[in-house]
Amino acid sequence: MNQVLLVDDNPVQLSVREAVLRKAGFQVSIATSVESALAMLRIIRDRIGVIVTDHLMPGYSGPDLVRQIRAENDWIPVIVLSGLPDAQCEYEGLEVVFRAKPLPPPELIELVRSSLAEANRHRGAA
Asked: C-alpha angle 34/35/37, rounded to 5°?
C-alpha cells in the first residue's frame, strides 16, 4: 500500500508530477478524471497509500472526489493541489492536506512521504 494515485485532467501537470514521484522512488498510478480515479480505487484500493488530486476537473470538483473517497475509504490520505488558494474552505471537514500550486517538487515528495507514513501507521493500528 505504498502506491500514489495521481488525479488530474491536465496531462502536462500529471506527467510532471508522475515523473517527480517516480524519480523519488514511489509507485504511481494515474487517473485523468474523477470517474477513472474512483474506478481505480475500487480495483486497487488495498495498494493505494495516498491520493494526490487537482481541485478543478471537468464534471466533478476535488471536493466531490474527496467526499466519494471518504464515503468508502476514510483512512486514505488525500493531498489537494489548486491554483485557487481560496478553494481550501471547500474541503472543511474532509481531512485533506491542501496546497496551492505551483508546489515545488521537494515539497510534493515530502508531503507524499509523510502521508504514506501516516497511512501505514493507521493501517498498523487497525
From this structure: 65
Neighbours of 23 (CB within 10 A): 10
pTM of whole model > 0.85?
A: yes
Note the pLDDT of residue 118. Answer: 84
- Cell 494526490 -> residue: 52
Cell 505504498 locates to 2
Q: What is the Cα–Cα distance from 57 to 91, expressed in whole angstroms? A: 15
> Exposed (0-12), middle (13-18) or buried (19+): which is 72, by Cβ within 10 Å?
exposed
CATH 2.60.120.560 is the classification of domain 3-119: no
- Rounded CA gap, 24 and 1, in Å? 16
What are the residue ranges spanned by the domains of the chain? 3-119
